[in-house]
Specification:
It is a single chain. Helices cover about 60% and strands about 5% of the residues. With about 120 residues, the chain is mainly α. The chain has one domain (about 5-110). The protein has a two-stranded antiparallel sheet. The chain binds zinc ion. Zinc ion binds near residues 43, 49 and 116.
């Protein structure tokens, strides 16, 4: 499923055009599915608080992905700022890995104390 709509994204201040929104939103949503081991989709259907938290995370990850793909297209670029989102990377090669890590942090932050254990790994 997609965790946010273009209207939600635009209302949150997102500036990616609607033409690019679809692919970025599905990528962001897959990252949420991966981070929550597939638990988010069924849970969000019945839990408004988590659904809203995940929509918030989704809009932020879209901005992150948009900025990361922009910086990835610029050889040697090691930092980016887009939609008010600013991240610096050690090297260009680490952009994708850093974006994945950032996305996880966004999800973790949006879920706060994660009261419904969407991020629970069973160990740790
Ligand atoms: Zn919940």
């Amino acid at each position: 499923m997609l965790y946010c709509t273009y209207d939600q994204y635009a209302a949150a201040g997102g500036t990616v055009p609607e033409t690019a929104f679809g692919v970025l939103c599905s990528r962001a949503s897959r990252m949420i599915d991966a981070a929550t081991f597939g638990r988010a989709e069924s849970h969000a259907a019945g839990c408004e608080a988590c659904r809203e938290a995940l929509a918030d995370a989704c809009t932020q990850i879209i901005s992150l992905l948009s900025a990361a793909s922009a910086v990835g297209a610029v050889p040697g670029a090691a930092s980016f700022s887009n939609d008010g989102y600013s991240v610096a990377f050690g090297s260009n090669a680490s952009v994708a890995a850093a974006a994945r890590q950032e996305a996880y942090e966004i999800i973790r932050t949006a879920l706060g104390s994660d009261p419904h254990d969407l991020l629970y790994r069973g160990i740790l």
